[in-house]
Amino acid sequence: MKKLALLPLIALMATPLAAQTPEEVAEEALENAPIWDGHNDVPIQLRGRFRNVIGEFDFEDTTDTGPEHSSGRTMHTDLERLRAGKVGAQWWSVYVSASLSEPQAVQAVVEQIDVTKRLIAKYPDDLQLALTADDVEAAMKDGKIASLMGMEGGHSIGSSLAILRQTYAIGARYMTLTHSKNTPWADSATDTPEHDGLTDFGKDVVREMNRIGMLVDLSHVSEAAMHDALDAAKAPVIFSHSSARAINGHARNVPDGVLRRLPENGGIIMVTFVPGFLSEPAREWNANRSAEQARLKALWQGQPEQVSKRLDDWDAANPLPKAGVSDTADHIVHVRAVAGIDSIGIGGDYDGIPFAPDGLEDVSTYPALFTELARRGYTQSELEKISFGNMMRVMRAAEAYKASVSGMAPIETPVPD
Predict the structure, then answer these.
(1) Who contacts 183 (Cβ-Cβ below 8 Å, separation ≥6)?
(2) Is residue 254 a contact partner of residue 243, using CB atoms and an 8 Å limit?
(3) 221 strand-pairing partners
(4) What would the pLDDT profile of 151-183 be if each residue is shown by its tens digit?
(5) Which residues are identified as catalytic?
(6) CA torsion sign, 38 to 130 to 203 to 106?
(7) Distance between CA 373 and CA 361 in Å, rounded?
């Protein structure tokens, strides 16, 4: 009788469980390990739209911000959509224009750190300033979005290690070594090379960043500067918002020779959503449009209305190729093939781009990408590494190196006469 009683249970155990859908795999992954995004440009939107006066700014819902922008573009980010997108931690970019002189950039970046802190303080139920990995975990445990700050562009330290240390002291936790232009000590990916990578001072910048625990961000730097930084680095580096150059040849993307070095360094590339960095046809379209614009300016000198009209005609006849979720996933797949699953993160660059890929229109859409990866066979544990785990490992490694050299003196450089 006992054996008979067991039969229904045995039959139940033998019945295969229903397979999870890609949507369910992605949902569980992001529930366990919410997105830790590498780069969001809300702070420069506050500067450009509101001149950093945010008393009346409503970050709960920014979908009505289109009229505030010269092109009518609505912001990509607000608290409601961050929650919908399963964002648990965000690197806020305290970017300032690379066209500023170094002294102007130093002032401006301090102002951007200030306005970012004020934004975080304005929404204490939703945002919490995070300066360490433990801070990130504590904020998320409290149900808040951990908010970290990264400086985008080495021009913001005015070629001064003292200013580097002081920006760290007031909260910056990564620095992108360049932006769109060279600094006096590092080559940008999108400028004419001057230094063949990093100068000796540039290598000291990397070493000092490692010593104080500031992450070295290699997005925007030249390939030679990437290699020089990896040679000098004692802690993992990041690419806060870049993609794979083998798929899209843009200079802002990371070549395979650099990707192959990431596992040894322990660093990560946080794949970005910039359409021109994702779709090769879109990159070529941008180049063709720039060439057409230059041609029209040469043909119609002193007649800007003719240039504008004819460029509009060209646009109508040559629609921009679209980039989408699948293109973004292709870059992740390539990075995994070259550098491994532990080398991947996400860096959307929302509010730093005029428009995003189809299906990834704003910060609410991250789950669509993770569903696509699950559809391609990525497991829940792999998705959790990409969404959060790899970035946490990198930050803890940088903090561990800082602790290991706590007795090391600051690198000193003489101030100018």
Answers:
(1) 153, 154, 155, 159, 177, 202
(2) yes
(3) 188
(4) 999 999 999 999 999 999 999 999 999 999 999
(5) 39, 41, 152, 179, 220, 241, 349
(6) positive
(7) 18
